[in-house]
Automatic annotation (TrEMBL):
It comes from the Bacteria. This is Diguanylate cyclase (GGDEF) domain-containing protein. One of its GO terms (molecular function) is diguanylate cyclase activity. Pfam families: GGDEF. It comes from Thermosipho atlanticus DSM 15807. GO terms for biological process: cell adhesion involved in single-species biofilm formation; negative regulation of bacterial-type flagellum-dependent cell motility. InterPro entries: Diguanylate_Cyclase, GGDEF_dom, Nucleotide_cyclase, Rev_trsase/Diguanyl_cyclase. Residues 349-470 form the GGDEF domain. GO terms for cellular component: plasma membrane. SMART domains: GGDEF.
Amino acid sequence: MENEFERRVKIAYLDSFLLYILQQIKDSSKISFKLFVSRNHSEVPENLYRAWKISRYYLKKEDIVFVDDINQQKLLLNIDGETYEFTYKILTKNLKGFIFELYNTLPQKIQKFLFKHFYDGLKVAYLLKNASIVLNYALSTNFNLETMIYAILTGITAGYSGAFNRCFMFLKKNDYYVFYKGLGPNDEKEAHEIWEAIETIEYSIEDFLRNISDDFTTSLEKEFKDVKIREKTLKSFLDYSKDIESRKIKFEVIPKEIKDKLKITTDIAIIPLKIKGKINGFLIADNKFDKKPIDKYQMLAFDFFGKQLSTFLENTEFLIELSQKAFTDALTGLENRRSLDQYLQTNSRKSVVIFIDLDKFKSINDTKGHNFGDQVLKRFGEIIKSNIRECDKAFRYGGDEFVIILDSKDFKVALKVLERIKKEAYHNLGLSFSAGVVLSSNLEKAIKVADNLVYNSKKSGSFEFYEGEIE
């Protein structure tokens, strides 16, 4: 029988909410339990086993009295010398019912103390709910980073969440931090209009994600779109050497440049946006219009959503980097065959296609080794890249073969590009190449025709151009 009691005490489930209440009571008052327990282990209510477990593991003191009558079972809770009785009837209620009875039995000063914690806890729970909505959106197939940023700024500024008046996002560019996104009213009149709307219309983060359009722009962005802040200004009041958390900055110590450019008149909250350990931007939030002090909950929301944004930005950069690696030839830095195949599937605009094959490249590998050959290919890729425009495309087709697709319908443009590449390749590498050139909207067929033209180019020693249309 004793072993069964022990087993049931050990497996008794202690709800986190129940433990929280008891922990708060324990921190502020002297507390003890006295348990009246049936000798028949099967007649003992689960809530009494919970109280037994709390006595043993949390209060470090057991005061157990065994009784013969099932109805004599009870729990005596002593708080600062006052004893509160929980009868067998109360103990047989479900866990929620028991916690409700426990709360109602507590002295009023403890109830008030706990209510404050419940209130703060509910706000945090709502914050986590909104964060979950943002996270689920980030994992969805229609994820859009711009919308995600606005959703996070909404989490920081909305009345049901962080409740800051304004929030600014800056991203690093050279020696400056440039304004990128912002949310909040631009003046006091607009602020009061927004607050009036919030009081009469429920508008959640879910609503925002569902309704935001691609051309969405806030009045704050129109006002501050050209603002940039020097990096050294930020360094003047943030210690870059530390792993910076969100901070509240007193108005008096905010640099004048930031005050003037963002029209700041109160304290601010600031958090860096770190990617791979480096600060690539930051968020600033304030309560410019209602002028209320920045409280602990606002800082919690600001810190939480700010770190979420850092994580999303870092993951997005990682995915972009991963995508670039998947579609980039590691040796030459040009796009690879996979990237070419994808490009051919999605593009049918009439363009000039150039197929290049290096002359006598095999003999370079045979006489000077493959490492030297790799360096030649790498340098040749750099030469191609430096002689085409951003609107043009260059691919390593395979081995010593390359494909260039020019955003042009003019063979003269292709000839100029080839002549520049030829001159630089010979000057830097002592290298020549053969090339076939085709104009067509059927790019896949054009590549095959241009490839065939390379054989004629090798025989003639000049670039070969296909005159005519390819179906």
